[in-house]
Amino acid sequence: MPDADSARATAREAIALLTAGAGFTEHRPPPRPLPPDGPLGWSGYDAARERASARTGEEESVVYGTGVVGARACVLLSFEFGFLGGSLGRNTGDRLAAAYELALTRRLPLLALVATGGSRMQEGMVALTQLQRVAAASTRLRAAGLPQIAVVRDPTTGGGWATVGAGADVVLALPGAQVGFAGSRVRPPDADPYAYSAEGQFAAGQVDAVVPADELAATVTQWLRALGPHEDLPAAPVPRALPTAGAGTGSTAGAGTGSAAGVGTRSTAGVGTEAGAGTGSAAGGGAVAPLPGTGREAVARARDPRRPRAEAYLADYFAVRLPLHGDRSGATDPGLLCGLGLRADGQPVAYVAQCGTPTRPAGYRAAARTIRLADRLGVPVLTLVDTPGAANDAEAERAGAGAAIADTFAAIAAARVPVTTLVIGEGGSGGALALAAPDNTHVTVDSYFSVIAPELAAAILKRPPSETGATADQLRLRPQDLVDLGFALSIVG
Predict the structure, then answer these.
(1) I need a labelling partner for 454 at 20 to 30 A (CA). Which of 90, 118, 288, 470 fits?
(2) Using one digit for the tens of pLDDT, what is the confidence trace for 183-209?
(3) How far is Cα 44 from Cα 50, in angstroms, rounded to an integer?
(4) Alpha helices, H only, 237-393
(5) pLDDT band at 286, cuts 50/70/90?
(6) ω before 229 within 30° of 0 (cis)?
(7) pLDDT mean over 336-349
(8) Are 167 and 141 in contact (CB under 8 A)?
């Protein structure tokens, strides 16, 4: 395999980069000879194919078969760009359809290494309709609960990007690769080239990660471990509580008493012990943080900047994290983290985690995408709730905030896999509730959940600011209130 800086690897070099010494067994579909100069009788087409075959040593623009990547068996298909620009003709479609069918028959994940300029114009509509064949084959694989990973190489454009590439469950890209539906010769002359790059597609939420070639095998191996296929995985364990940074033993609102030791047992009615959470006791052990005495204190503690956020919980929970990036509609929300992770015992769990900011429509769409992917693959889901509410600015409305939130509610409601929720901070109204499991939600001692923020409730009721605390108490938003009301199953920490 050429080094990571090589301009363009062949189809077989790309396969070898991932399979290394594990080997690759090539498959071929039954031969179907084309008529002279192809279905259109395009003058010189046969000669062009012969030259391409002599130059590359390949019979077509796609090589496929079975292989092992990081001890995980899979079906690999790889495009040979040197064969007529990796274009899709009828015989290419035969190979692609056969690769998907092979994955379906053997119940293996499909790994596509894409480098293509799109449909082959010398075969006209016969070539173009191969995209429909690929889409149908991909749909059958998806319905069978089998994962699809695409690695987009340079270049990946046209129908190949719009089917094999962008249609995959996870899209990884090599740095600097040209990626986009419009190839370099058919886009507007003043088009921004960054928009058609791997990095630009990542920024737009169309690519999950840009991965250097020397890290690709390890990254793909982890994705194959996480995506499965899996059967009968248990629910995601409830994360253990994390201590607030600098928390002492004083009674100041927002600071706990001592370190949170795993999951605590309270004498307060409705507060129980959650067995099996986390992977051990929280750092420091010691006294368990006290429950907030008032609604106002609960809100203050949830808003304390020293309180651990989603990033800390995810780092503590997972040995490996594999982010899913973007909403596949051209936007991202840095305040919402999505992906799949592997715990220390190897169990895969999908995660959706709010980071304490108002969640934007792109965040909800990314969440729904993650939950549905996990549900299809049989991977349990963990959601971490922490938001003052959904973004409510004009841009969010134009981006479809209501529809995006509705879609997230629907994804949770339809999930067949178990969903576990831990509220780690603010639970701000419907924007937070959209990510909460109806029958498996837990809360930390420094969290709250409310139909509306106390300040807004007081304003609606035309109460003076001095009555905000009393309003918070009336809302019964404390962790222990949430257990008493039947919303939460337990208080963690």
Answers:
(1) 288
(2) 888 889 899 999 999 999 999 999 999
(3) 10
(4) 295-302, 310-317, 361-377
(5) very low
(6) yes
(7) 98
(8) no
User: Burial of 47 by CB count in 10 Å (0-12 exposed, 13-18 middle, 19+ buried)?
Assistant: exposed
Nearest to 158 by CA among 190, 189, 139, 185: 185
Angle CA 117–28–164, to nearest 5: 35
Contact partners, residue 73, CB within 8 Å, separation at least 6: 66, 67, 106, 108
pLDDT in the model for residue 7:
59
User: What span, in angstroms and rounded, lies between the C-alpha atoms of 118 and 105?
Assistant: 27
**Which tokens go with 222?**
């982890």
The pair of structure tokens assigned to 102 is: 């092979």
Give residue for tokens 């003058």: 43
Model's pTM, two decimal places? Answer: 0.89
**Beta-bridge partner residues of 350:** 340, 381
Neighbours of 279 (CB within 10 A): 16
Residue 247 is predicted with a pLDDT of 57
Which position has the higher pLDDT, 48 or 279? Answer: 48
Cα separation of the two ends of the chain: 51
pLDDT of residue 215 exceeding 70: yes
Q: What are the backbone angles phi and psi of residue 414, rounded to the nearest 5°? A: -90, -10
Q: Which amino acid is at 71?
A: A
The mean pLDDT of 221-249, rounded to a whole number, is: 88
Q: Exposed, middle or buried by CB within 10 Å (0-12, 13-18, 19+), for 40?
A: middle
pLDDT on residue 254 = 35
Amino acid at 471: T
- List of residues 6+ apart from 10 with CB closer than 8 A: 56, 80, 82
Nearest of 333, 339, 376 to residue 356 by alpha carbon:
333
Tell me the C-alpha distance between 170 and 219, whole Å. 12
The Cα-based distances of 269 to 105, 183, 273, 491 in angstroms read: 54, 64, 12, 11
Q: How is residue 161 annotated by DSSP?
A: I
- What's the per-residue H, E or C state across 347-415? CEEEEEEECCCCECHHHHHHHHHHHHHHHHHCCCEEEEEEECCECCCHHHHHCCHHHHHHHHHHHHHHC
